[in-house]
Design goal:
The complex is a heterodimer. Chain A contains three helices and 32 strands. Chain A is mainly beta. Chain A is globular and about 60 Å long. The relative contact order of chain A is 0.10. The relative contact order of chain B is 0.17. Classes of the chains: A mainly beta, B alpha+beta. Chains A and B meet through β11, β12, β14, β15 and β16 of A and α1, α4 and α5 of B.
Chain lengths: 549, 286
């Protein structure tokens, strides 16, 4: 089936490609797509632990092709790992068509055959997605139907198996999502009511997802059909947005939860208030035994069905993202608050150009649990936090424009990271880190920009103190040049006080970009569900090409 | 409009009914009596482990459980590999369990990258693709079902081992016979390992108090191979059903090993696909 569909798509595509050079159009149809290639050569460096790689050069690449003609859409992706870059799972090995689909929309019914990505609500019980940088791709392969039976009612149903590298997972996933936009439904009863002009919008939703996996275990009696349910509510106004979702899962013994038969549940609440120059947001989450996968024996990031969004701030600077927090699907309770205020220009704190101040706080603890000593594993008090702190991040950011050409950003943060529990390792304990970042961006003229970062992290734990310096020069729209050095000057082991320097430059022409880099990448761990994967240190030359059409 | 609403409610109801119907709530019992079938096929269960891998004891417990359930039909070899098996200067984990063959298997099957604990059941490709090798690794919770399926397969060869062990000089003579129950091919190789059971040493064990266990019994530890990681070719020609090939091995057992705890594991594998066709074991000292 896969090959047949691929051949049909290729046959469809080839005659169009020549024409696509001109306008991407063929008759009423259009072809779009993208291509990306990332290659790296690996050198040995004993100071950072970069080992010899027998292939010397490795490469990840892919291309997407999509054909659209009226209500019909079809496409495919070809991926190649020869061999996969270090840090990617070696089961990404070889080259093949990994994604192909055809979608047709007929009135209010849309159906897809083949591969697709889908999400129900915030994804607490179902999210099929790809995160190429992390090597995550749990695309569905099967059938999806979307149906809008009446105004304001949106039904989605899915069935299929999830992608597992170049194969498919064992479990069959099937699910249904129903969303009700109350404003749109009301408009069917009150024709004079215009939902698009309504001051408030109310949306209700509900999902049910089940998986089937045969019980071939000779010892345990396992549920072959496991279902999860979720309900959500969203209130939207021009200044205020409130979203909440609750999910419940029946017994789902698995590798990650240690084969306990306890029920799972998750609650997510988020509220945002925003007016010109001021915003306030708060969110909270409680997760209890909600690791939900289509294969009970899967680990790391494989075959996940549930997506439990982290509610800590996603940092973009190098040192603040050194200790990234990932949701603990087996149990956590956490909250986040953020307030942002823009001091108007002309005021004392705003100065000539205004000043934006953002304060963010996030925190996650374990659950308050009691071991039951039986197959249920434990019981957990719903509203009570455990005593163990998993993560805390308090950060302040000030963005200040000094002149029309110079913009500066000052950031300070205090992070507490329970490395042993979050990464499921031992002997590292909890890391307490003070981090400061200064960034300046200077616009030399309309085309040339210079940007620099200075970062410092002070900690007595783990690898000790780090400093980072970065300089970037951009000549738009074509060129950029960057150098960065990450220096682990505070490492307790003198010979590990290494510089992780790298340099890169890139050239962009229209929708095509080339980036060449050279330098060192530090070693790190990726740990999920009790199994750890090492992302090894590397050193060498890299080349990236990306193009869209 | 009313008709449309009724039809959507009807559709919605069907989906809800389907989903609710697809729920298996287990209220106990949670385990069942294992029905061990008769058969000539034996299973090689390779447990890749490391003394600083805190989750590995759980896999070891599973291997021991399966060994005990399928008494005599599952043969366990625990190979210490990856950075989890590196020696540590602190003194706690200073014993070197690693071996060159273990390192070779680690690199070949990409074990370190996949993470520990991992295992292989007859080196079967769990997705049926024998052109790649990193797909042989299973999490320990999947070993039981994989073994149950393997046991239903017919044996392609029979293996028998006879030994002559000089306990004083620690010299071991082995004679291994391979009898073809199916037509054989030139890719089949005989591999012979030496394994030592119950080595007492340090082990990290998450969830155990204390976490660093000083007197952990390391079961089924791979010590060395008598003929390399992939063994010797059985025959340069195609073999027909009923033919027998004999191979002899001579080796000495290091005084570092407790020979009362040692046993020999011999298995036949297809050296192209790496599938294990049959395995047998014999203790050095009965």
């Amino acid at each position: 089936m896969k090959k047949v569909l691929a051949v049909i798509l290729f046959c469809l595509s080839f005659p169009f490609l020549a024409k696509a050079q001109e306008s991407n159009k063929f008759g009423a149809g259009e072809i779009h797509g993208n291509f990306q290639m990332m290659a790296q050569n690996y050198l040995v460096d004993s100071t950072i632990g970069a080992k010899e790689v027998s292939e010397k050069i490795r490469m990840n690449s892919f291309a997407n092709l999509n054909y659209i003609n009226g209500n019909f859409k079809a496409g495919m992706r070809y991926e190649s790992y020869e061999k996969a870059l270090l840090g990617f799972d070696p089961r990404y090995n070889g080259s093949d068509l990994t994604y192909r689909y055809a979608t047709y929309t007929n009135d209010d019914l849309e159906f897809t055959i083949g591969n697709y990505y889908e999400q129900f609500g915030s994804g607490l019980i179902f999210r099929s997605y790809e995160e190429r940088g992390l090597g995550i791709d749990n695309a569905m392969d099967g059938i999806r139907v979307k149906y809008k039976p009446t105004a304001g009612v949106y039904l989605k149903s899915v069935i299929g198996k999830q992608r597992f590298y170049f194969a498919k997972g064992e479990g069959i996933v099937r699910g249904l999502d129903a969303e009700f936009n109350l404003n749109e439904i009301l408009s069917t009863f009150l024709p004079e009511f215009n939902p698009e002009k309504a001051r408030y919008t109310y949306i209700l939703g509900g999902s049910m997802v089940g998986k089937y996996q045969a019980d071939n275990d000779p010892i345990r009696i396992l549920p072959e059909n496991v279902a999860a349910f979720a309900g959500r509510f969203n209130f939207i106004s021009d200044k205020f947005n409130f979203y909440t979702e609750y999910a419940y899962k029946i017994n789902d013994p698995s590798l990650t939860n240690g084969f306990i038969y306890k029920k799972g549940e998750a609650l997510f609440v988020s509220a945002n208030y925003s007016v010109k120059g001021f915003s306030l947001s708060a969110s909270a989450k409680r997760v209890d035994n909600m690791d939900f996968r289509s294969d009970r024996n899967a680990d790391v990031n494989n075959l996940t069905m549930s997506f439990l969004p982290a509610i800590s701030k996603q940092h973009t600077y190098a040192l603040p993202s050194f200790y990234p927090y990932a949701t603990q699907p087996l149990g956590e309770i956490g909250e986040q608050f953020e307030v942002s205020y823009n001091f108007k220009k002309g005021t004392k704190l705003g100065g000539k150009y205004g000043t934006l101040v953002t304060i963010n706080f996030s925190n996650a603890n374990n659950l308050d649990t009691t071991q039951t000593g039986n197959e249920q594993g434990y019981s957990a008090a719903f509203f009570s936090k455990g005593k163990m702190l998993l993560y805390r991040d308090l950060n302040f950011e000030v963005v200040k424009k000094i002149s029309p050409k110079l913009k500066t950003t000052y950031t300070y943060m205090y992070q507490v990271f329970n490395k042993d529990k979050v990464q499921n390792v031992s002997g590292f304990g909890t890391v307490f880190a003070h981090i400061a970042v200064f960034e300046m961006q200077y616009k030399i003229n309309s085309k040339k920009t210079f940007r620099a970062e200075l970062q410092s992290m002070r900690t007595k734990q783990d690898f000790g103190d780090w400093a980072v310096g970065l300089a970037e020069y951009t000549v738009s729209p074509h060129w950029f040049f960057a150098v960065i050095d990450q220096f682990n000057y505070g490492n307790a082991i003198a010979e590990k006080r290494a510089h992780y320097y790298s340099g890169s430059f890139g050239y962009t022409k229209n929708a095509t970009r080339f980036i060449v880099g050279y330098g060192k990448q530090r070693e790190g761990f990726l740990c999920v569900g009790g199994v750890c994967r090492l992302i090894p240190a590397s050193y060498g030359l890299s080349l990236a090409i990306s193009s869209t059409f | 409009m009313k008709k449309m609403k009724n039809s959507s409610l009807f559709l919605f109801g069907i989906f809800v009914a389907f989903t609710f119907a697809a729920c298996d709530e287990i209220t106990g019992p949670y385990t069942e009596e294992v029905n061990v079938t008769e058969g000539g096929r034996k299973i090689l269960l390779e447990d890749f482990t490391g003394h600083e891998c805190g989750n590995c004891p759980y896999a070891g417990i599973e291997a021991t459980k399966l060994d005990s359930i399928y008494k005599g039909r599952v043969i366990v070899v625990a190979t210490h590999c990856s950075f989890f098996a590196d020696t540590n200067k602190t003194g706690k984990f200073s014993y070197n369990f690693k071996t060159p063959v273990g390192d070779e298997l680690d690199q070949f099957f990409n074990i370190e990258t996949a993470g520990l604990p991992k295992g292989m059941v007859n080196r079967q490709a769990n997705d049926g693709d024998y052109t790649i090798f990193s797909n042989r690794l299973l999490n320990y919770t999947a070993w039981g079902s994989s073994i149950a399926m393997e046991l239903n397969k017919k044996a392609a060869v029979n293996l028998s081992i006879s030994k002559n062990y000089d306990t004083l000089n620690r010299n071991l003579n082995l004679d291994i016979e391979v009898e073809y129950l199916e037509k054989g091919n030139i890719n089949q190789q005989l591999v012979v390992y030496l394994v030592e059971d119950s080595i007492i040493n340090w082990q990290k064990w998450y969830g155990h108090i204390p976490e660093n266990v000083p007197d952990f019994a390391h079961r089924h530890v791979f010590r060395k191979s008598l003929n390399g990681a992939w063994g010797d070719r059985l025959s340069g020609s195609v073999k027909s059903v009923g033919q027998i090939i004999s191979k002899s091995f001579i080796t000495s057992i290091s005084t570092k090993y407790k020979h009362k705890k040692c046993y020999v594991v011999a298995f036949v594998q297809n050296n192209i696909t790496k599938e294990v066709l049959q395995v047998e074991e014999i203790k050095l000292m009965e």
